[in-house]
Write a structure and sequence with these properties.
- By secondary structure, the protein is of the alpha+beta class.
- The strands form three sheets. A four-stranded antiparallel sheet has the order 1-2-3-4, covered by helices on one side.
- It has three domains: 5-94, Double Stranded RNA Binding Domain, CATH 3.30.160; 101-178, DNA polymerase, domain 1 (Orthogonal Bundle), CATH 1.10.150; 206-390, Orthogonal Bundle (hpI Integrase, Chain A).
- The protein has helices spanning 5-12, 68-83, 88-97, 101-111, 116-134, 144-157, 159-178, 206-220, 245-257, 261-265, 295-303, 329-338, 348-359, 364-371, 376-379, 387-405, and strands spanning 21-24, 31-35, 41-47, 56-62, 224-225, 236-237, 240-241, 272-273, 278-284, 287-292.
- The protein has 16 helices and ten strands.
- The radius of gyration is 29 Å and the shape is elongated.
Length: 408
């Protein structure tokens, strides 16, 4: 076919196919584009190196990003260079093969489709864990022994973070091999001995919840007795730090909803359906999520001053470049310390929400729905708290069997 802008647009508007399809240009041999089942089109140039051997195919760019005439000119250049002995595909492959581990992981983070929160976490992992030990090494030259040695050093800093670094590095190598950054199947981060991890189990007792409630009321009224580590941004009154309603409200909402920290800090007022008592989260760890609110949680939301677009107002609230609050580390440390809960993390409030439900006999399926678990297996961590209703069921069954068999 004669590849023109109109013809390409016509093909790209056609119904999706169930397999990849190639389209070749009549005028320039070796120039064309292919369309994937997803509908994505890619320009390419195909040629045989002057030295012989199998044909090479050089990707030129996406259909839509490159216009037809631009892609044709790029293909003409690649084919002409091949005729002169300058293989642009090999040059590109050589350039990729010379990249460092840092560059490989950066390319993976930039090129892989993922949530922005995951992207930010990976960038931090690269900077703090991978880069100090392997960042400057050529990616193609890394051995499994190098990675294991690096993991051992990372583990002395943070055992769990070292494991996360291995997962990121392994994923980057798999991704890179598929794109020609290194030989197919090369992955020195595979089968590394990782640190054993144990799920954290810390739930607040009734007494601890009462103490936390007292500390929250003190924080928002007379204030927590001031210490040097308290937030410098909070007002100081008579050697106490007073925390506003958005800080204490955020902590109460974490307890009353079982939501994750970022789900509360990123929550916008437009995502609160007060008539139906729902939070309609467009994006959470497991995707779109609907949170069913209790009367207590809704009352807490309704009591918060509406300053800006975020429920938990940050320092930039109501400004043109408003951003959500980044964290609650310092106020939580002060409030939890005041309540005698220095060993409690903010995420433990989510576990507490689940543990109360399990202890009261709610089904794990219901608890999983409330927490927004995508996988039912995730909720099984609370199964051991689900003892009373399970024992009641066991007693009911066994009692009938005992009567039938004449048991004692």
């Amino acid at each position: 076919m004669k590849i023109t802008a109109d013809k390409v647009a016509e093909i790209m508007d056609e119904a999706l196919l169930n397999k990849q399809k190639f389209y070749w240009d009549d005028d320039l041999t070796g120039f064309g584009f292919y369309r994937m089942p997803s509908g994505v089109g890619t320009w390419f140039a195909e040629f045989r190196p002057v030295s012989g051997g199998s044909k090479r195919r050089l990707k030129l760019g996406r259909v839509g990003t490159l216009k037809a005439n631009e892609a044709r000119e790029a293909a003409r250049k690649a084919i002409a260079n091949a005729a002169l002995g300058n293989d642009l595909a090999k040059n590109r492959s050589d350039e990729r093969a010379s990249s460092t581990v840092k560059e490989l992981v950066e390319a993976y983070i930039a090129g892989k489709k993922m949530k922005e929160s995951s992207r930010a976490f990976y960038k931090t992992t690269l900077k703090t864990q991978i880069e100090p030990f392997l960042g400057s090494v050529k990616a193609i030259a890394v051995l499994r022994t190098d990675v294991q040695r690096a993991h051992d050093k990372m583990s002395k800093r943070a055992r769990y973070s070292a494991n996360r670094a291995m997962a990121l590095l392994s994923a980057a190598y798999v991704w890179g091999a598929k794109r020609g950054y290194m030989p197919e199947g090369m992955n020195p981060a595979a089968r590394i001995d990782r640190n054993k991890e144990e799920a954290r189990e810390r739930y607040l007792t009734d007494d601890e919840m009462a103490r936390l409630g007292d500390a929250l009321r003190e924080a928002e009224t007379v204030g927590i007795p001031h210490r040097a580590s308290d937030s410098k941004h909070a007002p100081k009154e008579k050697n106490r730090t007073v925390y506003g309603p958005h800080v204490t409200g955020a902590i109460r909402l974490l307890m009353l909803t079982g939501c994750r920290l970022r789900e509360i800090l990123n929550l916008r007022w437009t995502e609160y359906d007060e008539k139906r008592g729902l939070l309609l989260l467009p994006d959470s760890k497991t995707g779109r999520k609907t949170v069913v609110l209790s009367a207590a949680a809704q009352a807490e939301l309704d009591s918060l001053p509406r300053v800006g677009k975020y429920v938990v107002a940050g320092q930039s609230a109501a400004t043109e470049d408003e951003k959500p609050r980044t964290d609650l580390k310092k106020p939580w440390a002060a409030i939890a310390g005041r309540a005698g809960l220095a060993d409690v993390h903010l995420h433990d409030l989510r576990h507490t929400f689940a543990s109360v439900g399990a202890g009261d006999g709610m089904s794990l399926l219901t608890i999983g729905k409330l927490l927004g678990h995508a996988d039912a297996a995730t909720t099984q961590r609370y199964a051991h708290l689900h003892v009373d209703p399970t024992r009641a069921a066991a007693n009911a069954i066994a009692d009938k069997i005992a009567v039938a068999i004449g048991g004692r």
